[in-house]
Structure formats: structure tokens, C-alpha cells
């Protein structure tokens, strides 16, 4: 387990090395093509040092990489702060958001699919404004109203990935406690449940409820997110959230274990159709 920036450097380096090898170029030749010392290419490929977005673009040009989506993803992994590619809106909040949260948002914005287990609250991508406000206020005690407004604004802006021309494919397993926990009062919760019903009908959103009747399950250890990318599975990553930081798991063994765990949860959870009925019944007070 490592923090996101370290994982992303290693993933970026591994992908650049694979692209160089595929192009039939040695590290020495790559260095000459971009005007560097060979040691810089090696440090980037091993993840021992970071690469600037401009560095990544130089290497991709040298390797003849023309895939715009892959180029943008790799530049994002380098921590792009410029206007290249799509609008990286979260950079406007650098003074407010911790690095781990910005890291999460950038992964979320570039992923093609997201699988998540939620055991306590509704996933951020599906929260209503008032639910998001109540959750944020509870999570950060004594938060000034202006800062609270900003964090809610960010939470809602993240939801644009579900409204994009090619939207993020979201598969979420919600423990029943997510539906039963009254966040923000009865009215807020009722509207939030109605939002879940609405979201569950979207073709790219799959919601399944894990009822209390399912008993103990592999998800009792806590929530997690698996991000997948259409360009390459080598960039897939598991994210575990903690109170003050996030941990990223990149090893194939870890990805395999969490993928198996998520698939097991899908088996124990209600079907998407039954889950929709369950959420609607919960909203109606049944």
C-alpha cells in the first residue's frame, strides 16, 4: 500500500517504458531524441523521480504515440497543471483540496469505469446538494460556512463525469445501512433516496443493495473504489479512503483480490431490479 503520488509515478513510468519498448527505442536513444541524459529517462521509468507534463509529451512524441485519450491520461498522471487536454477544473481548488483528494478526482475524471462498495454514506457521485452538505459538515467539525460551500461545490462538480458524452460507467454496491442512516433529517434523506432511484435508471449506472439479511460479508472491512481505464488495464487502481489520507493499491495481486471481493458482493447483493424496488420502498417508509 502506498500513497497516490508514488503509485502514479510508478504507473506512469511503467507505461512510458512499455511504449518505448513497443516503439523499438532504447532508453539511450530516447534520451538523445528529447535532449536529455539517459539517467533522466531511467529515473522516470522506474518512478524514482516525477515527470512534468511537458516531459511526458516529449517522450510520447518521440515514441510516436498518437492516441489522444492515452496521451491525456498519462499527462494527467504526471500532475498536469496546465490547460492541455480537457479542462482540469479541480486545479482551481488547489488551495482548498488536499493533494490526495485532487489525486482521487483526477483519476475519477479520466477513468472509464468505477466500481465501489459503500458501507456508510451514499457515493459522492450520487449525492444531492443538501445531502452532500450534511455529510461534509459532519465529517469536518467546525468547518467555516464558506469552506463548506466550496467543498459541496466540488462534490457536485465531480458528478459531471456521469453526464459526459461518454459517461463514466458506475457500478455501486450499497450496504443497507447507507439507506437507513438518516443524514440531514427525514426530508433530506427522502430526496436523496429519490435521487438514487433516478440514478439507478441510467444505462451507465448499476446500483445493488446489500441487505442486512446477507449477514457478514467481505465488505465489512470497509469501503473501497476500483478505477478502470479503457486505454490500458495497467493503470487500474484500488483506492482506500482513510480519515486523513487515501491509500492506493496497484499490484496485480491486490487488484485481483479486490475485483474478486467486488464480484462476490454482487452475488450476495440484491439484483439491480430488486435493489431499485428496495430503495423505493425504503423511501416510502416501508
UniProtKB/TrEMBL annotation:
Organismal lineage: Bacteria, Bacillati, Actinomycetota, Actinomycetes, Kitasatosporales
InterPro entries in alphabetical order: Cro/C1-type_HTH, DUF5753, Lambda_DNA-bd_dom_sf
Gene3D superfamilies: lambda repressor-like DNA-binding domains (1.10.260.40)
The name this protein goes by in its record: Helix-turn-helix transcriptional regulator
SUPFAM superfamilies: lambda repressor-like DNA-binding domains (SSF47413)
Residues of the HTH cro/C1-type domain: 16-70
Superkingdom of the source species: Bacteria
Organism per entry: Streptomyces marokkonensis
Amino acid at each position: 500500500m502506498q500513497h497516490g503520488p508514488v503509485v502514479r509515478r510508478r504507473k506512469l513510468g511503467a507505461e512510458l517504458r512499455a511504449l518505448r519498448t513497443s516503439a523499438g527505442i532504447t532508453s539511450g536513444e530516447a534520451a538523445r531524441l528529447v535532449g536529455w541524459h539517459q539517467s533522466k529517462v531511467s529515473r522516470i521509468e522506474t518512478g524514482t523521480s516525477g515527470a512534468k507534463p511537458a516531459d511526458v509529451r516529449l517522450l510520447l512524441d518521440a515514441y510516436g504515440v498518437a492516441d489522444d485519450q492515452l496521451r491525456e491520461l498519462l499527462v494527467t498522471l504526471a500532475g498536469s497543471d496546465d490547460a492541455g487536454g480537457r479542462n482540469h477544473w479541480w486545479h482551481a481548488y488547489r488551495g482548498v483540496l488536499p493533494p490526495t483528494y485532487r489525486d482521487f478526482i483526477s483519476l475519477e475524471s479520466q477513468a472509464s469505469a468505477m466500481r465501489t462498495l459503500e458501507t456508510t454514506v451514499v457515493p459522492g457521485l450520487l449525492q444531492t446538494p443538501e445531502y452532500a452538505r450534511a455529510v461534509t459538515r459532519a465529517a469536518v467539525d467546525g468547518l467555516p460556512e464558506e469552506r463548506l460551500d466550496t467543498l459541496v461545490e466540488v462534490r457536485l462538480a465531480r458528478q459531471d463525469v456521469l453526464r459526459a458524452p461518454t459517461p463514466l460507467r458506475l457500478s455501486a454496491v450499497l450496504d443497507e445501512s447507507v439507506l437507513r442512516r438518516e443524514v440531514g433529517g427525514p426530508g433530506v434523506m427522502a430526496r436523496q433516496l429519490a435521487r438514487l432511484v433516478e440514478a439507478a435508471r441510467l444505462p451507465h449506472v448499476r446500483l445493488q443493495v446489500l441487505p442486512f439479511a446477507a449477514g457478514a460479508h467481505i465488505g465489512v472491512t470497509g469501503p473501497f473504489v476500483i478505477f478502470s481505464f479503457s486505454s490500458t488495464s495497467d493503470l487500474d487502481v484500488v483506492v482506500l479512503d482513510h480519515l486523513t489520507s487515501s491509500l492506493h493499491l496497484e499490484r496485480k495481486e491486490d487488484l485481483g483480490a479486490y475485483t474478486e471481493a467486488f464480484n462476490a458482493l454482487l452475488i450476495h447483493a440484491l439484483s439491480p431490479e430488486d435493489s431499485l424496488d428496495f430503495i423505493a420502498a425504503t423511501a416510502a417508509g416501508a
